From TrEMBL:
Upper lineage: Bacteria, Pseudomonadati, Pseudomonadota, Alphaproteobacteria, Hyphomicrobiales
Protein name: Tn3 transposase DDE domain-containing protein
Any one Gene Ontology molecular-function term assigned to this protein's record: transposase activity
Organism expressing this protein natively: Rhizobium mesoamericanum STM3625
Location of the Tn3 transposase DDE domain: 20-68
InterPro entries in the cross-refs: Tn3_Tnp_DDE_dom
Amino acid sequence: MPAARSQHGRRDRRAQRNFFEKRGVYTHQNSLAATLREAWRLARSTFMLDWLSDIDLQRRAQTGLNKGGGLSRPQACG
């Protein structure tokens, strides 16, 4: 039984090694993904600053949310 466990452990280590080797191959894609994540963070931050400073934007969003709010309300049967 111990032989099976050690073989399984080797297989796991090999899979982990292959995973990290593959990640190293895609360094360009990884840096692109990191750049896109950072751009998304900047866009979210900009929107939050706009949201906090623009009362009209908040009102328009609230109005839109109120229009759709009745759709989730349970309807009486009968």
